[in-house]
Amino acid sequence: MTAPRLEIDLVAITHNTSTLVDRLRPKGIRVTGVSKATLGSPGVAAAMLRGGVTSLGDSRVENLARLRSSGIAVPLTLIRSPMLSQVDLVVRSADVSLNTEAVVLDALSAAAIRQHTTHAVVVMVELGDLREGVAAADIVDLARTVGRRPGLRLAGLGTNLACQCGVVPDKRKMDELSRLAEQVERTPGHKLSVVSGGNSANLNWALTTDDVGRIDELRLGESILLGTEPLHRRPIDGLRTDAFTLVAEVIETKAKPAQPWGEIAQAAYGVQPPRRDTGTVRQAILAVGRQDVDPDGITPPPGIVALGMSSDHLVVDVGDHGVSVGDELTFRLDYSALVRAMTSPFVTKAERSALPRVREPAHPLDASA
């Protein structure tokens, strides 16, 4: 099989999903599986569904359209505020969207009327991370206006933390979201069907607190896909961290001096990475680059050290490993590296599962599309 490629273990993804679903169920929290890091892969989505998620979410409406056209019938949520230029596609592809702007709500209402349907809205609250969200003082008034717009239905409130500024989702933040939900519901006819507490960064709070208040949903991506929590990037007990493996092929092996020679300026991507002071290096070059993966997000096999990466070449010190041209080396990935590898049209995606897969339509970013 060609390289570079991303090997995806769907069984591991199902295991991680079911483990988290089972741990959160006693808390009264259901899980929306987030597929955005995998470009809305129907295979990955199906693995999450087998693990027990009740709905799927993605930040790109094109990915949601891909999921819908693959035959997936569960509720789909657009987890980024809709662009005005895409409201018709949003209403057509997503059952629910996260919103913060009145002008966008007006446009969604008009789109829903044109399509003779009803679109559900979750209004997002700003709780300190300074990404999307309406100020707490304004949230009740905006939420209560959603249902006055034809074609729209207020589904609930939500928030997002730990993405822009790393603000930790804790009891104080979640209690505030619960309090705001109760304020919205004091008006007759505004019963909320979802109070979405956030993302994988919420897991420590959710699994260690005795009272989750009104929070009844989490949107989980990184924890399901990589088995890690985003606050400190630590593995989560009982989850698999090997669902994704990047495989790259060796195209050169040579013993080379540890230090370059000649006048030194910037390398292709800025400052040259440090190298050993003296001696020689058993160096290999792999056919993968920054176009394909984030160099800061890959972990080579033990005993192999990454020396640098340009657009299309990864240079490593192979140490005592016996490596030849044509051999393949495997790398672990963090979330940033996974997103870029999935996005690169030059990285083949190879999903492995003993279970049947859903039909996969071409994605707009696929080279063959």
TrEMBL record:
It comes from Phytoactinopolyspora halotolerans. Gene3D superfamilies: Alanine racemase. Its cofactor is pyridoxal 5'-phosphate. Residues 8-224 form the Alanine racemase N-terminal domain. Pfam families: Ala_racemase_N. CDD domains: PLPDE_III_AR_like_1 (cd06815). One of its GO terms (molecular function) is pyridoxal phosphate binding. This is Alanine/ornithine racemase family PLP-dependent enzyme. SUPFAM superfamilies: PLP-binding barrel (SSF51419). It comes from the Bacteria. Keywords: Isomerase, Pyridoxal phosphate. InterPro entries: Ala_racemase, Ala_racemase_N, PLP-binding_barrel. One of its GO terms (cellular component) is cytosol.
